[in-house]
Amino acid sequence: MNNSQLNHRDLYRLPWTLPDNAISWLEPTAMCNLACDGCYRENIKDSHLSVKEVKHHLDVFQKLRNTDCISIAGGDPLLYPDIIEIVADIKNRGLKPIINTNGKALTMELLRDLKRAGVFGFTFHVDSKQGRGNEWKGKNEIELLDLRLQYAQMLAEVGGISCSFNSTVYEDNIIPH
Ligand code: SF4
Fold it and tell me: Atom of ligand 1 at shortest distance to CA of 74?
């Protein structure tokens, strides 16, 4: 078989399993309401793509990849003004919209709207190097479990939404003190 006969779609393993599925990464905005030490993205105010541009990115994903989930990141995707429309569009394409957020802008009202639009899940990025203010200022990884619990409880209240967490690991937060 030469290269021209290879169909890359045949190279993914099917059926999907939880640890073995293809996730495409969508970044509709570079704007964020935190400034994590380890962020790879420049925080740019109001740097939102248009809905048309975001949909074009989704078209490209669907043309070139076998994708199961769309991970909507940023910046923080909850600051994207048309996040509801994008979540609904992803759902209508038969894909699973997953919001990758620091959670700061999440309200119960927004969460319910996202649920109605078809959100599949949330991944909350919470760690001690995010410069969070208010009661979370200076909290270590163990103390931040309360914040993680808060987000999980919000999702549980609405129901039917998957919930996961991630953290950036640094030399001084890998072992909580
Ligand atoms: S929450 Fe995410 S996008 Fe925002 S500063 Fe932190 S790593 Fe960057």
Answer: 3
The class of domain 22-32+44-166 in CATH terms is alpha beta
Ligand 1 in reach of 39 Cβ (< 6 A): yes
Tokens of 75: 């910046």
Q: What pLDDT is recorded for position 20?
A: 56
Query: Where along the chain do its domains lie?
Result: 22-32+44-166
pTM for the complete prediction? Answer: 0.89
Distance CA 118, CA 116 (A): 5
Residue with the nearest Cα to atom 1 of ligand 1? 102
Q: Where in the chain does DSSP place strands (E)?
A: 23-26, 69-72, 96-101, 121-125, 162-166
User: For the range 7-12, what are the long-range contacts, defined as Cβ-Cβ under 8 Å and sequence gap of 24 or more?
Assistant: 8/64, 9/66, 12/66
